[in-house]
Specification:
Elements: E1 14-19, H1 27-36, E2 39-42, H2 48-51, H3 61-72, E3 76-84, H4 90-94, H5 99-116, E4 121-128, H6 158-169, E5 174-179, H7 190-206, E6 212-215, E7 218-220, H8 226-238, E8 242-251, H9 264-283, E9 287-292, H10 319-329
Parallel strand pairs: 1-2, 1-9, 2-3, 3-4, 4-5, 5-6, 6-8, 7-8, 8-9
Helix pairs in contact: 5-6, 8-9, 9-10
The structure holds ligand G3I.
């Protein structure tokens, strides 16, 4: 049984994982991802710094490897990302550019990337992580914020510029705004979550093209805001938008005041939470993608020993896999 090999209602939803082409020479890595998932995202190789390391020179070799892997295995390919305020090449951050230069650079990047993947990417994170982490949740200070409003008021900020360019370049790709600490509209994440909802609603009111939102969900084994995640997904659905859970991982960490000790019980608890969140996506019409940030504990952006993903370091199924398969069987 594979997570992607599902019947009935769930065949309309993606169950995906981020992958890193750097590990494609490991057959086990490739087989596990293609056996269990029906969508992949490149963890790093489609980002601005990977694709346009030198101004005006586009290098799609690594990003193409992931798109090709998806195509070869009948998986969907989800693009991440065209515009982010951090990890950009130094020519971009340190260049002596005006607002209109930045508009040109951003439009050129978004257009070239979406054009290259026309018909290959089902969705793109057009803008990633623009919103600040504390009240009043305004836009983070970054390079792209040097873009100021158009004189004619068509574009009021860099986010508008990026989304308008994307729709023009590929009218069929679904365009997403993606962020973290925004998954639940209740509890500790309510403030940033409401800010994102308001930002997206205002984009729709202004006629800025957007098709969905990505809820990253880098949370932990003790996450307990699932009702708020469902309520949040539903309010985006009411706006006519899709929701992708894009970067789920459930860390077990003893840092930052979070006292998690890994054990069989903890693995069980983690597995149940993975299944609960999968069920929340399957039960909510607006949710169309359930995706983890990697799939094996051997390769995660999180620290070794924090066990965040559904497969262990040796690609063995952890309890999460069985729990998720049980949920899928019920659909
Ligand atoms: O590949 C080089 C290696 O050659 C070099 O020796 C080493 C030295 O630092 O760096 C390696 O590159 C690192 C790359 O990951 C590959 O491991 C970069 O420094 C490092 O910055 C990069 O981090 C990635 C990060 O985004 C920044 O792009 C993480 O892998 C990736 O998991 C993380 O993903 C983000 C999402 O895009 C957005 N949401 C949050 C998420 C987690 O931070």
């Amino acid at each position: 049984d594979a997570l992607s090999n599902i019947s009935g209602k769930t065949t309309t939803k993606y169950v995906g994982a981020a992958v890193n082409e750097g590990f494609f020479d490991d057959a086990h890595y490739k087989e596990t991802s293609s056996d269990y998932y029906n969508l992949v995202t490149a963890e790093n190789s489609c980002k601005f710094s990977a694709v346009q390391k030198t101004q005006g020179t586009f290098d799609f070799a690594s990003c193409d490897q992931v798109a090709q892997f998806a195509e070869d295995n009948d998986m969907a390919f989800r693009g991440h990302n065209t515009c982010w305020g951090v990890y950009n090449p130094s020519w971009l951050d340190n260049g002596n550019f005006t607002s209109s230069d930045f508009v040109g650079i951003l439009e050129n990047h978004v257009t070239t990337v979406l054009d290259h993947y026309q018909g290959k990417a089902v969705a793109w994170d057009i803008v990633n992580e623009a919103i600040s982490d504390s009240a009043p949740y305004d836009f983070k200070a970054n390079t792209w914020n040097n873009i100021t409003a158009d004189a004619d008021g068509i574009n009021t900020n860099y986010i508008d510029v990026a989304f308008r360019a994307a729709r023009k370049a590929d009218p069929n790709a679904k365009l997403f705004y993606n962020d973290y600490n925004v998954a639940s509209s209740q509890g500790w994440s309510q403030g940033k979550s409401d800010a994102m909802y308001n930002m997206v609603k205002s984009m729709l009111d202004r006629g800025v093209p957007i098709d969905g939102v990505g809820l990253q969900m880098h949370v932990g084994t003790g996450y307990d805001l699932v009702d708020g995640v469902i309520a949040n997904m539903e309010r985006y659905g009411a706006l006519g938008l899709e929701v992708h859970i894009t970067e789920l991982d459930l860390v077990c960490s003893q840092k930052n005041g979070y006292d998690c000790v890994w054990s069989d019980d903890m693995e069980q608890q983690q597995g149940e939470l993975y299944a609960t969140l999968l069920k929340a996506c399957l039960d909510t019409d607006a949710c169309t993608n359930f995706e983890t940030w990697g799939f094996t504990d051997a390769h995660s952006w999180l620290e070794d020993g924090t066990h965040p993903l559904p497969f262990d370091e040796n690609y063995n199924q952890k309890k999460a896999v069985g729990s998720m398969l049980d949920i899928l069987t019920g659909y």
